[in-house]
Every structure is written in C-alpha cells, then in structure tokens.
C-alpha cells in the first residue's frame, strides 16, 4: 500500500470507526500531507522512519513557528496513524510511542459580558426581513444552547421538531444530546421556520427535493458555512457597538457556559449541554470565573494594592 493509499485508508477508518468529524478529517489530512512532504525531503518513508526522525519533524514544526498546541495535534495524528499502520501489518512498531507532546497549557476562553450579549440580541431583534430573522435565530440558538458552530449549521429541521422545548444536537462522534431552548430562542426559531423555504433554491423548493437543512444555502455543502456565520456575527457586533475582535461563534459558546455557571448552574449539567466527554474540559470555565473574581477584588477592594497607595 502506497503512502497516499495508506493515508486515504486511515482517514476512512477514522470516519467509519471513530466517527471523526469532517473538520478533524481535513486537519488530519493536512497534517499527514505535511509529514509526507517532510519524509520525502529526508528520503524516508512512513513504513521505515525511526523516532529520531519524528523528533526532527517536531523540531521542524517548532522552527516554522507553530504553537505547542499545533505541534501536539500533529503528534496525536501521527500516533494514531502509526497505530493504524501496525494494525494493517505495514509496520511492526510505533516510532511515536515514546515521544511526549510539548506542554501546551490551557488558555482561558475569551470572556463576553452579559451586557455585550444583550447588545447583540437587541440589535438582532430590531432587524427586518428574512436575513435578519435568520441572523436572530443563529444568535439565539448559539447563546441558548452552547452549540459548536459546526453543530449549528448542520442542523436538520427534524432535529427541532421532537419537542419545541428541546433541541436535539448531534455532536462529535455522531453522539446526540438534548439541550433545552429558552422561550426567546423558541420564538425566534418558530418565526424563522415560517420563512425558511425562501432560502431554498428553486429545485429544492419542489416537493420531495428539500434536503432538510435548517439553514439551507446555495453553497457546496447545502447549508450555511461556519465562516459565513462568523462573518455575520462580526457585522452584528460592529452595528451593536461591541468590539468585533471579541465576537465569534465559539465565544458565544463560552458565554453560554460561563454565564450559566456564574448564575449557579451545576457543572455536570453544563458538561452535558456542551457535549464534553470529560468534565475536566468543562472545568476550564470555573477558572474563568475565578480569574474574574480575582480581578474584581484587585480592582475594587479597599485593601487592594492598586487602590491603597501610600500618600
């Protein structure tokens, strides 16, 4: 099996057996292409390279300025790839097995205040026309559910119709979870569904041709892209007087989690709604709240060193 065929077979396995998302498959494909180019320059191949060459590759990534987090992702991809090659009988060992990933640390998510979210929603609710209604439901759903933007844009109409109070979200690994909808999100969704058909192409609007996407689009995927949602949110931020650098679909996911915890929500419940398999991933939001409390004390407590300057 050639290198290209092995890569294709690996990606097919990741999709079929591991339920890897399209984004993950594309990232792994790019990583393996980069690694293949490196091996070609070194005159080596995946079925024969040794640990020292893997270390050289990681150093090469470092010299190119890639972050520790990106290097760690490359290493994770290679570990799984070489395990696959072993399983296929193309290697007897895993040259990555004894190599540790660079320490990445955990960057705290960006914080979006409730006032910022309110400003976005007020502006979105004031809009007129079908584009404005679609934008409103995008913002309402992101903030009301904490969905990943990839989960949002790939929603099917059927996922909204089991129970009007609950949205069925299909996340990583094709796992489904149920997330409650706020009254405002339900109302925005109901109004949008009345005009969703106007976003269908002439062909799709014919009986039996509707693909069923909640947010249909004329693009290749058939539904609104993540990039387009990000653009719409940036534009909304500008018109709302909110710094657009602070806004993205993922920041609204962070806002959902931090605002829930800030108002007394249970960490396990937030974990389930976010679709985190490990609660340690959700716990990063408690660090956000702790950091915020520390800043409040430093900025406003009368004994804070910032305020109690000697006269």
Q: Alpha-carbon distance between the termini? A: 78 Å
- Overall, the morphology is globular
Order of strands, widest sheet: 1-2
> What ranges have pLDDT less than 50 throughout 5 or more consecutive residues?
none
Helix content: 55-70%
The largest pleated sheet is described as: 2 strands, antiparallel
Structural domain count: 2
The CATH topology of the largest domain is hpI Integrase, Chain A
Strand content: under 5%
Q: Supply the number of helical segments.
A: 13
- CATH class group of the largest domain: Mainly Alpha
How many whole angstroms does the radius of gyration measure?
Answer: 23 Å
β-strand number: 2
| Classification by helices and strands | mainly alpha
Elements, N to C (H/E): HHHHHHHEEHHHHHH
Mean pLDDT value: 86
Level-2 CATH architecture of the largest domain: Orthogonal Bundle
| Assembly context of the chains | single chain
Write out the CATH superfamily name of the largest domain.
Intergrase catalytic core
Explain the overall architecture.
With 311 residues, the protein is mainly α. The chain folds into 2 domains: 3-87, Orthogonal Bundle (DNA polymerase, domain 1); 114-298, Intergrase catalytic core (hpI Integrase, Chain A, Orthogonal Bundle), CATH 1.10.443. The protein has helices at residues 3-17, 22-42, 51-63, 68-87, 114-125, 130-145, 149-153, 183-195, 226-240, 249-262, 267-274, 279-282, 284-300, and strands at residues 166-170, 176-180. Strand 1 and strand 2 form a beta hairpin. The longest helix has 21 residues, at 22-42. It starts with a helix and ends in an 11-residue tail after the last helix.
């Amino acid at each position: 099996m050639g290198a290209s065929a092995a890569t294709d077979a690996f990606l097919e396995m990741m999709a079929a057996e591991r339920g890897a998302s399209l984004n993950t498959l594309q990232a792994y494909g790019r990583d393996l292409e980069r690694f293949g180019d490196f091996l070609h320059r070194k005159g080596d191949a995946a079925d024969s390279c040794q640990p020292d060459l893997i270390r050289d590759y990681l150093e090469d990534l470092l010299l190119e300025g890639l972050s520790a987090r990106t290097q760690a992702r490359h290493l994770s991809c290679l570990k799984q790839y070489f395990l696959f090659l072993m399983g296929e009988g193309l290697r007897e060992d895993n040259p990555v097995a004894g190599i540790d990933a660079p320490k990445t640390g955990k960057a705290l998510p960006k914080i979006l205040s409730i006032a910022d979210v309110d400003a976005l929603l007020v502006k979105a609710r004031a809009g007129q026309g079908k584009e404005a209604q679609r934008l409103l439901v995008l913002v309402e759903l992101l903030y009301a559910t904490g969905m990943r933007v990839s989960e949002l844009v790939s929603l099917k109409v059927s996922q909204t119709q089991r129970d009007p109070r609950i949205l069925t979200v299909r996340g990583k690994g094709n796992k489904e979870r149920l997330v409650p909808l706020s009254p405002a999100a339900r109302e925005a969704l109901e109004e949008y569904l009345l005009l969703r058909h106007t976003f269908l192409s002439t062909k799709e609007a014919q009986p039996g041709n509707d693909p069923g996407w909640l947010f249909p689009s004329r693009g290749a995927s058939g539904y609104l892209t993540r990039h387009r949602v990000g653009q719409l949110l940036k534009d909304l931020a500008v018109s709302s007087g909110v710094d657009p650098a602070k806004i993205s679909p993922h920041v609204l996911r962070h806002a959902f989690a931090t605002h829930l915890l800030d108002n007394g929500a249970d960490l396990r419940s937030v974990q389930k709604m976010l679709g985190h398999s490990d609660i340690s991933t959700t716990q990063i939001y408690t660090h956000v709240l702790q950091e915020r409390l520390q800043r409040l004390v430093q900025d406003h407590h009368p004994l804070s060193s910032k305020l109690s300057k000697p006269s």
